[in-house]
Amino acid sequence: MKQSESITDLATALCFAQAEMGGAVKDSNNPFFKSSYADLTSVIKVIKEPFARHGLSFVQLPVTSEGGRGVGVITMLMHNSGQWLQGEYLLPLDKVTAQGAGSAITYARRYALQAMAGIPAVDDDGESLMVHSRQVKVDSPQQDMSLEGVSNEPASAPKKRVNKEIMQKSVAALVSAYIEDDEAGINETWSELERHEQEFVWNQLNGKQQAAIRKATFKGESL
């Protein structure tokens, strides 16, 4: 796997997009194995709109292994900040034919893209909605923030509207400051947010990042 020097903005945007995505529906059949699977169209359908809303895009380029006995794709996930993430997926070929290579490339594209986006394959649309609901629930904050005067209600419906682009940058700044153990940076970024924006941002962070905000903002007081 390869990546740009930093993927902080990309990771934040992908977090937002994944919270909106369900699963890829298994709407195609494999008569040989008597099973169903989510084809490439189904995978792209799930990710297309959430990716666009959060500045994400992807490209997939066919590649061959040395000697031409394997084919596959390079999948690059990109963010409008210029950050990127790239992985290669190769498959062996039993018979080196144009048809065989084309089938293998399509197979590699759907599996690589599904893995890059982090979405499962599900049996039907109803299960896809259930997967989406579970994802949102898992991403909800695990710590009680009511002592700080911030509501524990889901941030998806704040009392005031938030600018998602600005919120993504705030989340990215807080995550970056957390990684660098920069308490002053955490405190500065957090204090610049209005209360409803803090509610939204809080719900995008994991427990350790939330604890870092507590420590930096409230000086480690027992809350």
Kindly summarize this structure in a few lines:
With 223 residues, this protein is of the alpha+beta class.
Describe this structure in words.
With 223 residues, the chain is an alpha+beta fold. It has helices spanning 8-20, 40-53, 98-117, 125-139, 164-179, 183-191, 195-202, 207-218, and strands at residues 2-3, 24-25, 28-30, 35-37, 56-64, 70-79, 84-92, 121-122. The radius of gyration is 21 Å and the shape is elongated. The chain contains eight helices and eight strands. It has two domains: 2-136; 142-218, no CATH class.
Count of DSSP helices?
Answer: 8
- Looking across the biggest beta sheet, what order are the strands in? 1-7-6-5
- Strand segment tally: 8
User: Major β-sheet, in short?
Assistant: 4 strands, antiparallel
Give the helices and strands as they follow along the chain: EHEEEHEEEHEHHHHH
Termini gap? 42 Å
Name the features.
223 residues; alpha+beta; 2 domains; two-stranded parallel sheet; 8 strands
Helices and strands, with pairings:
Blueprint: E1 2-3, H1 8-20, E2 24-25, E3 28-30, E4 35-37, H2 40-53, E5 56-64, E6 70-79, E7 84-92, H3 98-117, E8 121-122, H4 125-139, H5 164-179, H6 183-191, H7 195-202, H8 207-218
Parallel strand pairs: 2-8
Antiparallel strand pairs: 1-7, 3-4, 5-6, 6-7
Helix pairs in contact: 1-2, 1-5, 2-3, 5-6, 6-8
